[in-house]
Amino acid sequence: MSTYNEIDAHDLSVMLSKKSLLLVDVRNDDEVARGVIENAVHIPLAMLPVQYESLTKAETIVFYCHSGVRSAHAAAFAASKGCKHVYNLAGGVLAWARAGYQFVPLNSQSK
């Protein structure tokens, strides 16, 4: 059975600075409009089954949402499709903000 791991905001911050990973925001458009974690790609949870093929190329994937519930579903889905190093940001953007980390506008990132 494929599974995923939980990661906290601090550990994600360290991972972002040390290794290449795919960071996926699964929140809705209105939520993402308030800002994303830098270098995240936006794939709404409902679109994940349609777009999961693009995820299979990444060695490490971290999913996040508002509180960690939807991203846990996304992580479980990706793991079930054979993705190997899959993480869920525990507590989502709420935990990220509480830890003092910043957000950027989605459209300000280079694609």
From TrEMBL:
The record's listing under Gene3D superfamilies reads: Rhodanese-like domain
Which domain of life does the UniProt lineage start with?
Answer: Bacteria
Q: Kindly give the Pfam families that the UniProt entry links to this protein.
A: Rhodanese (PF00581)
Q: Where is the Rhodanese domain?
A: 17-105
Name of the protein in its database record: Rhodanese domain protein
